[in-house]
Structure formats: structure tokens, C-alpha cells
Amino acid sequence: MEIDIQRTKEVLGKTAAANGAELIRKALWRKDHASIIVATGSSQFEMLSELTREEIDWSRVTAFHLDEYIGIPFRHPASFRKYLKERFADKVAIREFHYIDGEANPSGEIGRLNKLIEQHHIDVAFIGIGENGHLAFNDPPADFETTAPYIEVELDHACRQQQFNEGWFPSIDEVPEKAISMSVSHILKSTSIICTVPGERKAEAVKRTIENGITPDIPASALKSHDSVFLYLDQDSSSMLPRL
Predict the structure, then answer these.
(1) With CB atoms counted within 10 Å of each terminal CB, which end of the chain scores lower, N or C?
(2) Domain 2-234 classified CATH 3.40.50.1360?
């Protein structure tokens, strides 16, 4: 795992996007088509904004949606489909974007997505880490054993509290209790992973991820088993790490 600490979240976002863009371009040099995973949340604002400005032949890129609440309509302010369409897909001439339909029957939607993604190798995964250490919506203790690309998960209280605190819902009671999420094992199948984690609220999760062993109780710790992970932090999210 390569750790890059930047002074501000704006510089962090720009640096992470530049590296991610370069990895996409390298994939397109090697082959005709590239596939990526795109995450959501307030931690991804700056990175995604910068990524849409990069010179990439998006007509040769397919994107997959990382996770989505079950039961959330597209127009809901917390809809990750809405987030990704407005902040990313509408700003680039991407070949395909495969969204997770949170309003569909979960088992049928998971089956559809799994068939789709199994036809692609993910070249670059753009992800973050939750305050409880989750990857995508794989809350602790995460399922490290499943080989299914997408799974149905239950959201723990800490995860739901984070979504409320970030302003996506008017009350914690309105945060859904279930979601469709890409599994940890499938995220780790990506050739490279760009993990963007700004903000003081993430400092403890970052510390636990880096300083502990690989364990389902800290889902993000699984990233340490991957050969090509780039972890981007700012001064706030790295504040609990020892200064070298």
C-alpha cells in the first residue's frame, strides 16, 4: 500500500484523480477497453470533480456502481445513482455506466449485476473508507469469504449515523437498513485501487486500517493484501498516524 498525504482535501482529490486517470490511460494503451469502479459520498467530491477534467477516451471505458441503498428512488437526495449521474456520468462521454437499481427486487438486481460485471476485468477501482472502516457498504464484520461480485448487506448503526451526519437524510430513522454492495473480494480483484480518504472524521478508521492486521472487523484492512493500492490522505485524516 502506497500512502500519499496531502495538505488539503482539494490537493488530495487532484492528486488521486491524476494517478487514477494515468492508470486508466495505461489500461487503454494495453487493450481496447477499460473498466472502472466508482464510489460516492462526500469524500469523493474533489476526486471525482478532478477526474472528469482529465483527458481520457471515455468512449472506451465502462464504469460500475459500487453500492446503493435498497428502496431509495432515483430522485432521492441520497440516491447514489443520482450522485454518480450528476457528478460523473453526465460530465464525461463514457461508453457505459452500470448503475445499481435500488428500487428493483434485490435478488434479481444482484443477479443482473453479477452477470454483467463477470464479463469485465476491473482496471481501476475508485473507493473510500467509511468511519467504521467499511469498504463500499461492507460493514464490520465484513464477509471476506464470499466470491459473489455483488451482495445484499445490512448497514450497522455507525454506517447509518455517518450517512445522517453527512446530511444525506433528515433523520437517522430514514437511513435504509439494507443495501446492495460490491463485495470486498471483488473490489480486490481490481488491477489497481485508488482509495481517497479526506477528513478528520476518518482519522480513527485510517489509523486502525494501517496499524492493525487484516481482519473482517476492519474491512478496509483487506486493502493491505493487494499489490497496487494507493491511499490518499489529507492532514486531517492522517492526524492520528505517527509522523515520520
Answers:
(1) C
(2) yes
Rounded-to-integer distance, Cα 244 and Cα 131, Å = 24
Q: How do residues 50-72 score in pLDDT, each as one tens digit?
A: 999 999 999 999 999 999 999 99
Query: Half-sphere exposure of 210 toward its Cβ, with a 13 Å CA cutoff?
Result: 23
Strand partners, 178: 154
**pLDDT tens digit sequence for 169-194:** 899 999 999 999 999 999 999 999 99
For residue 203 the three cell numbers come to: 482519522
pTM for this entry: 0.95
Q: Distances in Å between the alpha carbon of 73 and those of 70, 76, 82, 83, 179?
A: 9, 6, 9, 12, 13
Return the exposure string of 167-182: e unless at least 16 CB atoms fall within 10 Å of the residue's CB, then b. ebbeeeeebbeebbbb
In whole angstroms, what is the distance from residue 231 CA to residue 206 CA?
10
